[in-house]
Amino acid sequence: MLLPHRFKKDGEIEKKFITYLTEQESYYLVSDGVARSADQPKRFTPDEAVEIYQRFADADMAWLGVRHREPMMYHFAVRVDPRESKAYLMQYLDIFNEEKNLHLKHMVEILSWEGIRSLHVPLRLTETEDDYCSVEHDRQGHTILVKKG
Questions:
Q1: Comparing C-alpha atoms, which of 23, 26, 24 is closest to residue 96?
Q2: Confidence (pTM)
Q3: Tens digits of per-residue pLDDT, 130-139?
């Protein structure tokens, strides 16, 4: 089963994260809060992997998707505005680019466990709202997902 794992500096799974990034292909969809052109998955160099690890370590909140104590599938980090109960997606890697809409909704659910109701995503999603999330767009074409209920 895939479970979100809260990022811990120098944790056991986090140490594997650097190796994972150099061995597995991922789509790097968001970096430093900016959408990247991610048409093709890539493996990262050791230096790039360390830099990504550091960005996750420096984030307000970050999670790794893990299975059997190994990094797996998608990983994300956010900057949080606690006064407005809002998160801004700063880092997002995913091995399945075509499942990003679903994974972003999972992120909203995970963030709701922390009392955060909305996620600002610097990507334009094609999916419309459903019973779970409302989908809004700002003037820049970014998506804002808000948990319903």
A1: 26
A2: 0.91
A3: 788 899 888 8
CB atoms within 10 A of CB 48: 15
Average pLDDT of 62-75?
Answer: 92
Integer-rounded Cα Rg, in Å, for the chain is 15
Q: How far is CA 111 from CA 44, 47, 63, 115, in A?
A: 27, 29, 10, 7
Question: How many whole angstroms separate alpha carbon 94 and alpha carbon 41?
Answer: 9
Cα separation values, 127 from 76, 84, 123, Å = 20, 25, 12
Instruction: Check residue 6 and give its pLDDT.
Output: 93
| Nearest C-alpha neighbor of 147 from the set 111, 123, 99, 121 | 111
Q: Kindly state the tokens that stand for 143.
A: 């998506």
